[in-house]
Amino acid sequence: MNDLWSACSVQNKSANWFKQVAQRAEALGQQRLRVGVTGLSGAGKTTFITSLINQLENHRKGLLARRAPFDRLESVRWQRESVEQPFPYLESLSALSSNPARWPESTADLSRVVIDLRFQPQGLLRKVQPVKQLRLEILDYPGEWLLDLPLLQLDYGQWCEQMADWLEQEPRRSLAGPLRDQLLEVDPAAPADLQQLAELKAAWSDFLMRCRTEAGLSRNQPARFLQPGSDVAAEMLEFVPLLRANRHSIAPADSWFGICSGRFDYYRDFVVRAFYDEHFRHLDQQVLLVDMLGPMDAGEAALVDLRDAMEAVLSSFDYGRSGLLARLLRFRPRIRRLAFCATKVDKVSPEQQRAVQQCLEDLLLDRLAEVRHGGVEVRGLPLSAIRATRQEGDNLIAGLEGQDGWVRYRPGSIPAHLPQSLQLDSPELLPLRPPPGLHRSEPFPHYRMDDLVAWIIEGAQL
Ligand SMILES: Nc1nc2c(ncn2[C@@H]2O[C@H](COP(=O)(O)OP(=O)(O)OP(=O)(O)O)[C@@H](O)[C@H]2O)c(=O)[nH]1
Ligand SMILES: [Mg+2]
C-alpha cells in the first residue's frame, strides 16, 4: 500500500524531482553483502574468487544469464582502485589465460574484492522504482587462521602440553625427528638464548611445512608461522612450544618460558583475536571450500587430520553451544549462512561429484549438525570453479600440468558414503592444467558456480 501510494504521488511530480528522489533512494538503497571466502591452503580460494568475478562480469553469456535475478542484472563493476589489500584478479587471469595455461599463484594473506551490481527492479512498480544496487564485498582469508580459534582458550603452558601430546603421535613424531629431542632438552626456567630460540622457531616452521606437504596434515599451529599475513611483526612470531613446560610452570621473565609465553600471549590476544574483531565479525555469509579429493587420495591419516582441522574451523560458525563462541570472541557473530563446498570435482566424472560432497558431509556429520542447530543455514555444493576436464563416455580428457597434449583417463572409484573406517580405494588423481583459451570476456567453464553465486545473493532484497 505504501509503495502504491508513493508510486502514484511520484508519478504526479515533475520528471526532474522524480530523478532526484530516485537518485537519493538509490544512494540510500544500496545494499551490502559481506561474504567471507576461506579454506585451507590449496583448497581453491583464489581460483574460486577469480571464477566468481569472471562469471559476474560475463553474466549475459554464461549459465547465470538464464536464471533469476541475473536476468535483471544490468551492470557489474569490479572495483579496481580504492580497495585495501586488493585480490589479485588481473594476475590470476593472466596466469589462467597464458599459453600454456597456469593456475594462479598461491596466496598467503587476506585480500578483498568489491563488486557493484545494478539490478532492474521487478514487478508492477518497476517503472517507478529505483534501480536496485548491491555491493558485494568479499574477504578472502586463509582458513588456517580459524584453526587458531582454540588458542583463545589456552594459556602458554596448556598449549605446550597439547603440542607435547601431538608430537608423541605419528606421523608428527617422525616428521619432527631431532627437533622433538631439542625441544625436550630446553629447561623452561633457564635464561633464554634468543639465537637458539630463533633457530628452533625456524625448525618448527619447517616441521609444520613438512606436516603439510609430506603428510597432508592440516592442523599446523600456530597458523601464522606458515601464513603470517602482513599485519604481524616477525619478531613477535618467535616462540616455540617447550615440551617440558605445563600449565603449572612459573619462571622469570627472561627465561625460555617467560619469553615464549609473553610472545604467545601477544599472538593470542593481538593476532588471533584481532582477526576476529576486525574482519570476521563483519561477515554476513561464509563460503568454506574444502579439497576433499586430495585427502581421499592421500589416505586415512590425511582424512583424520582434515576432519580434525575442519571441526576446528567449523567451531567458528557454531553458535549453539551456550554462547561459548560469543564468550571467547567477546561479541556475537552474525554469519547466518554457510556454503560448504567440496572443490575441484571436475577431476572426477559428473556422476561421482555428488558422492565427493556426500563423503565430505559424512566426515563432518556431527559438527555440521551443531552448526545448523546453532541457527546457521548450511548449503553443501560440489564445486569446480574452473572445469579442466571434458567427458567422453566413461572417460575424462584433460591436459597435465607441465606437459603438452592430452590424456584420457577413467577416475578411480568414489564410494557413495564415506566408510566409518576412513579406508577407501584411492581415486587416483592427476595434476591437471587449466583448460586452454580462457579469456576474461568469456565465462569460464565450471560446475555449479551459478548455483553458488545465486545462493550467495539470495539474501539481498533485489
Ligand atoms: N581441476 C581443478 N583444479 C583446481 C580448481 N581450483 C583449484 N584447483 C587446483 O588447486 C590448486 C590450488 O588452488 P588455489 O585457487 O590457488 O587455492 P588457494 O586456496 O587459493 O591456495 P593458497 O593460496 O595456497 O591458500 C590450483 O593450483 C589447482 O591445481 C578447479 O576448479 N579444478
Ligand atoms: Mg590463494
Structural key phrases:
462 residues; alpha/beta; Rossmann fold; 2 domains; 7-stranded mixed beta sheet; 3-stranded antiparallel beta sheet; 15 helices; 10 strands; globular; disordered N terminus; binds guanosine-5'-triphosphate; binds magnesium ion
Class by alpha and beta content? alpha/beta
Widest sheet, order of strands: 2-3-4-1-5-6-7
Do you know the CATH topology of the largest domain? Rossmann fold
How many strand segments?
A: 10
By DSSP (H or I, 4+ residues per run), the number of helices equals 15
Strand content: 5-15%
Helix percentage range: 25-40%
Major pleated sheet: 7 strands, mixed
Instruction: Based on the coordinates given, report the CATH architecture of the largest domain.
Output: 3-Layer(aba) Sandwich
Gyration radius, to the nearest Å? 25 Å
What is the string of SSEs from the N terminus onward?
A: HHEHEHEEHHHHHEHHHEHHEEEEH
Uncertain ranges: 1-19
Number of domains as seen in the coordinates: 2
CATH class of the largest domain reads: Alpha Beta
Shape: globular
The first-to-last residue Cα distance is: 19 Å
Please name the fourth-level CATH homologous superfamily of the largest domain.
Answer: P-loop containing nucleotide triphosphate hydrolases
The residue-averaged pLDDT reads 89
The ligands found in this model are: guanosine-5'-triphosphate, magnesium ion
